[in-house]
Amino acid sequence: MKDAVAGLFEQALDQLISQGIIDAADRKPVQIENTRDPAHGDLATNVAMMHAKAAKMAPRTLAELVLEQLPQSDSVQSTEIAGPGFINIRLAKGAAFEPVIRCLTEHHQFGFHQATNERVQVEFVSANPTGPLHVGHGRGAAYGATLVNLLKARGHQVEAEYYVNDAGRQMNILAVSVFIRYLEHTGESVVFPSAGYQGDYISELGATLFQHAGNSLQVSYDALLAGVPNDSEETKDTHIDGLIQNTKESLGDDWLKPFDLALTAILDDIKDDLSEFGADFDEWFSEKSLVTSGEIDQAIATLEERGHLYEQGGAIWFRSTDFGDDKDRVVRRDNGETTYFASDIAYIANKFSRGFDRIIYVWGADHHGYIVRIKAAAQALGFDPERLTIRLVQFAILYKDGERLQMSTRSGSFVTLRELRDDVGRDACRYFYVMRKADQHLDFDLSLATSQSKDNPVYYIQYAHARICRVFEGLEGQPFDEQRGLDHLTSLVTQEELDLATAIGRFPEVVSKAAASLEAHVICYYLQDLAADFHRWYNGTRLLVDDMDVRDARLALAKAVQTVIRNGLDLLGVSSPRSM
RNA sequence: GCGCCUGUAGCUCAACCGGAUAGAGCAACGGCCUUCUAAGCCGUAGGUUGCAGGUUCGAUUCCUGCCAGGCGUGCCA
Question: Which of A350, A167, A172 is nearest to A246 (CA)?
Answer without folding.
Answer: A172
